[in-house]
Amino acid sequence: MPLLEARSLTKRFGGLVAVDRVDLTIEAGEIASLIGPNGAGKTTFFNMVTGLYRPTSGTLVFDGHPLGRQRPNQVTKLGIARTFQNIRLFKNMTARDNILVGMNCRLRSNWYHALLRTPGMVREEEAARHRADELLDYVGLGRHMGDTVAHALPYGLQRRLEIARALATQPKLLLLDEPSAGMNPRETQALTELIRQLRDDLGLTVLLIEHDMKVVMGISDRVHVLDYGRKIAEGPPREIQHNPRVIEAYLGRAAAEGAAEPAATTRETG
Length: 270
Ligand SMILES: Nc1ncnc2c1ncn2[C@@H]1O[C@H](COP(=O)(O)OP(=O)(O)O)[C@@H](O)[C@H]1O
Ligand SMILES: [Mg+2]
What we know:
The chain has helices at about 40-50, 70-80, 95-105, 110-115, 120-140, 155-170, 185-200, 215-220, 235-240, 245-255; strands at about 5-15, 15-25, 30-35, 55-60, 65, 80, 175, 205-210, 220-225, 230-235. By secondary structure, the protein is α/β, with parallel strands linked by helices. The two termini are about 30 Å apart. It binds adenosine-5'-diphosphate (ADP) and magnesium ion.
């Protein structure tokens, strides 16, 4: 049984079909990429999986559970976490508190325990802080950054903190929306390593929207390509790289946008 399965998934915004009858299957333990020119429907696909948008039609099944009518917090509990194309941290909270917010969905204590500060709750809080520090170390911020306010962190570290917050929800499937955007080549390389570790060390399944073709081709087991909401190709990286329909989608869009040098394998696609 695949971990995530979309069948004929569709999202319309008025007259615009942002995602058009997309079939997409993600196997447990794989690193998959979702690519396609700007506006192809990639983020909309994530938004349906995570319960931010309700599909217009089609089905979505995650780990045996139907999605599509679940709210974002229910989807998180089922084991799907994500990061956003535009970083969405709690800017004025510390790095550690951002992670604790992520962890909140797994804590047992309710308002009653919080009000009375029961010993069980205090223990749970301590364990949560300890776990948050471990996550800070794991994603490469280091626990010494725990008290730093999120907006004061350099951009690359904010992206890593967002990954730590996602990990804090204990996901099975991690959705990353353009995680390398705004990073320099060295940061991008380190991020690629981190993503690989998430799969190899933690056994996570990763679905990645990414415009850096070096990243996509370097770590993906499978690549899915959208163009104008339609899925136009799927396969291992090497096959996708040479797929005429994929190249045309990128070149065609580049020409339409008046790009000076349309290079199918390196162009930023948003
Ligand atoms: N909430 C929305 N309302 C109306 N149109 C939207 C909305 N979200 C996305 N779209 C449109 O859907 C299309 C796909 O957008 P998106 O999924 O963000 O593309 P991608 O992430 O591949 O760049 C675009 O034409 C975009 O303008
Ligand atoms: Mg997007």
